[in-house]
Amino acid sequence: MTTVEALIKIGVDSTAAKRGADEVDRSMATVGRAARRAAGDVGALQDEMSGAEKAGSALGSALRTVFLAVGSATVAKFTYGVLTDLQDSMVEVANTTGKAGDELRDLENRIIGLSSRVPASVQTLAELVAQGHKLGIVGNRDLVDFAEAMERVGAVTDLKGGNAAKSIAQLLRAAGEEVDPAAILRIGAAVDALSSASGAKGQELVSTARSIVLLSEKFDVGTKEALAMAAALNKFGVESTSAATLVQKLFAAMDKDYLAQYGGDRIAAFEGMVKALRSAANNGRDTQAVLASIGVEAGGRTARAVTALVKGSDELSRMLRIARDETANLEAIMESSDRAFNRTSSSVHRSEEHTSELQSPMFIS
After folding, report:
1. 3-class DSSP state for residue 51?
2. pLDDT tens digits, 111-144
3. How far is 27 from 80, CA to CA, in rounded Å?
4. Rounded to an integer, what distance in angstroms lies between the CA atom of residue 73 and that of residue 273?
5. What gap in Å lies between CA 154 and CA 188, rounded to an integer?
6. Alpha-carbon separation of residue 137 from 12, 143, 279, 282, 354 (angstroms)
7. Which pLDDT value is given to residue 76?
8. Exposed/middle/buried for 256, CB within 10 Å: 0-12, 13-18, 19+?
9. Angle in degrees, CA 173, 178, 184, rounded to 5
10. Integer angstrom CA distances of residue 107 from 9, 42, 136
11. Residue 364 needs a FRET pair 20 to 30 A away by CA distance; which of 104, 221, 269, 345 works?
12. What is the dihedral of CA 176, 180, 185, 186, to 10 degrees?
């Protein structure tokens, strides 16, 4: 492997560019030490760099060649910090996944490849990969797809990092749905769309949706519908516990004859019940008495939550339509996350333009 090939292999962390630029700004001696550390891993630099000054000069020459080929964004990444982050992160990945040898090297290469496509450090991506394995994702491709899905979700919502991934996985499992990269992105896309429509935070939606699913477990509420209900109720200020209790009590009040009117579709029946309560209220009927007949105490938190939902029944219908439009939601999150990635990358490039070392004799000698 040539010096340039070795450096290209090492320097692929897209968001380490700013950190790399700062490193280049430091003294030649530091650059020399970085080169010698890199040499310990790539071998090809060992004979070439015997002293700090010589090491700095050789590294500068190599960087110049790469700079001309791939531009300053890649050059600024060739620091020992990237190496250290990658090595430390892969140790953690190996310990978590039990992967070794060619399988581990393949996973490392996939993480490196992803870091060139999304503005996240190899350390961040490796941590997501480790979290994905803890959630039951096994294959290398699926693990890296999971990391990319979480980066996309995190770029446009407040659902960021391993804890958010765990929350999404808990929602999926509560609903009996598989935890995989596609499901993660689907939930993130629905949350993004519903947050924009309702003003609710993503973390609140996922938490409330999970409470709804768990409390209404025997009624098989899906994640899309639970998120839509959470968004509608959140918009009217109904907190998570009351929201879950409301949904459970209204579901429990549905008998077979009532469900038959909606072809057995419990979500449609729920929507119909809310609209019927609204109609009754508009016609002067005592809706509190109706609620009391199904075990909702008048004046209690759940009754107030029902009243809020009844007044906003149109919002419930709108949120359900939004959550169910998976194609539009997925297209939207891909486009918006791409824009977010590009903004981050542009910011990094602007920072690099102010890095004086990229214009120093080290790069042109």
Report:
1. coil
2. 999 999 999 999 999 999 999 999 999 999 999 9
3. 14
4. 58
5. 8
6. 25, 6, 48, 51, 42
7. 47
8. exposed
9. 90
10. 14, 19, 16
11. 345
12. -30
Q: What distance in Å separates the CA atoms of residue 170 and residue 179, rounded to the nearest whole number?
A: 9
324's enclosing H/E stretch is helix 313-324
DSSP string, 215-230: HTGGGT--HHHHHHHH
The pTM assigned to this predicted structure is 0.71
Q: Give residue 220's pLDDT.
A: 87
Among 267, 193, 196, residue whose Cα is nearest residue 225: 267
Tens digits of per-residue pLDDT, 221-268? 999 999 999 999 998 888 888 888 888 888 888 889 989 999 999 999
What is the Cα 67 distance to its own chain's centre? 32
Tokens 């070795």, located at residue: 6
122-134 and 140-156 are packed helices; what angle lies between their axes, rounded to 10 degrees?
Answer: 110
Residues 59 and 79: their CA atoms lie apart, in Å, by 10
At 255, is the secondary structure helix, strand, or coil?
coil
Distances, alpha carbon 85 to alpha carbons 47, 108, 127, 143, 365, in Å: 25, 12, 11, 19, 30
- Report which residue type is found at 34: A
Spell out where 226-310 has E strands: none
Cα dihedral 46, 51, 54, 59, rounded to 10, equals 50
Which tokens sit at 154?
A: 């995190």
Residues present in the chain in total: 365
What's the pLDDT tens digit per position in 176-211?
A: 999 999 999 999 999 999 999 999 999 999 999 999
Q: How far is CA 363 from CA 81, 266, 309, in A?
A: 20, 68, 65
Question: Closest Cα to residue 12, out of 123, 112, 155?
Answer: 112
Asked whether the beta carbons of 324 and 189 are under 8 A apart, the reply is no
Q: Residue type for 155, please? A: A
